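Notebook entry, structure prediction.
Reason for the run: the old model in the group folder had no record of what sequence produced it. Starting over properly, with the input documented here first.
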Amino acid sequence: MGAEAKRERMFLRDVESLSTFDGRKVTVMGLGLFGGGKGLTEFLCGIGAEVTVTDLRTRETLAPVLSELEELPVRWVLGEHREEDFTGADIVFANPAVPRDSRLLALSRRRGIPLETEMNLFFKHCPASICAITGSNGKTTTTSLTGAMARKARPDALVGGNLGKSLLPDLASLHESDWVILEVSSFQLEDLASVDRRPDVSVVTNLSPNHLDRHITYEAYLEAKRVILEPGRHAGGAVLNGEDPRVRSWRSPGRNTLYFGRTGSVVPSAPGVWLDETAGSVFLSRDGSRSPLFDARDLALAGRFNVLNAGAASAAALLMGIEPRQIAGAIREFRPVEHRLEPVLERDGIVYLNDSIATTPESTVAALEALGPNAVFICGGSEKGCSFGALGRALALRARGVVLLGKTADAIAAAIPRRPGAVEVRRASTLEDAVAQASAMARPGDRVILSPACPSYDMFLNFAERGRRYKDIVRALGASRS
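New structure, fully documented this time:
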């Protein structure tokens, strides 16, 4: 049996009326701390399901989420999973982070108990049009930019998905004329293969090896991402990275496709949104003509990669029917996404930035290209099967110094070329120690950047907690020098 057949059989294909959940025993496997499990639990309780939530994390760890759900009629099983919650349920919902080869999910399937996910349920029952954005890097910024553009014409447009907000609780208020903009991960797309519906607008920002601890091979990761462009109900326009040969090859003749990128890499007459790096302007190319969209200097985000993210968002907005003047207005007003090259503090001539959302080497390389060489980077975290070769070379060329911590510190250090005058490399045992050492290495006019290139699970619950902790440490550092 092929991988595609396996994934299609794993989750429930049928579109059942939401009223059928009334009185059914539902197990939610994995509450999580990033919004999806919370929204799903609220929604299921709201439609009358008898909900059991089970998570291997303890009540103390999950306290921030549990405090918001304490009034709901939920049966909590925390710090463990119990077989009876999977064999005695009418339906089991799996959090995206739960490994799909889980013994307990397999047990449910053997007992004939259907499996479902929060994102699949949303796709099945959402009456609004959906713009879904995926890729290895830039998803969150592109999704946020697209949402800002959409709201210029449609103030009620909703933004959610993998960036931390479930939109299931908003289903009842949505109409066919509405739009929702979703960030979707490879985990969510892999599950979406079981559903007939596809996005009305599908965006692929870029591709590079990622989450290989879960997908095992790069080919399996690519297969999961490509689901966003497969045929299905509502399958409509597509936005593809014009600089990536593999992404360009995913074009489907049946879709209205726009590309984005820089004019130096691809013939700019291809339909899409292109950055003229010489002029610093972004234009729309369509039907053999060019029309200006915005000036790169209008975007209050550092780095050319963010201009490309804005190009991808602009292309998506155009396919959604947003006017160019509205796109330009959103660009001028947009402010940085939290944890993505987010300014935190300037002290003693040193600027501190929070890039905790950079959980891949490619994201940190992009930050190096945007902000080096007068910069000290804090890198390292937990392992997910990525290569650090390109990151090591970029750190050697474009950083003043690097402070490494976490489980991947040795691997990153080994990837940094050693030569005379090479970048200074230090080690830290904690994030507090890393900030102190980076501050000591930096000079007036430099930047200190938390850009880990790795997930956070060895030290923190998620990248958001890591970023908040970094900001607290930096602000305390600033206060101590006042």
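Summary: Residues 342-480 form a domain with the Protein-Tyrosine Phosphatase; Chain A fold (CATH 3.90.190.20).
The old model has been moved to the deprecated folder.
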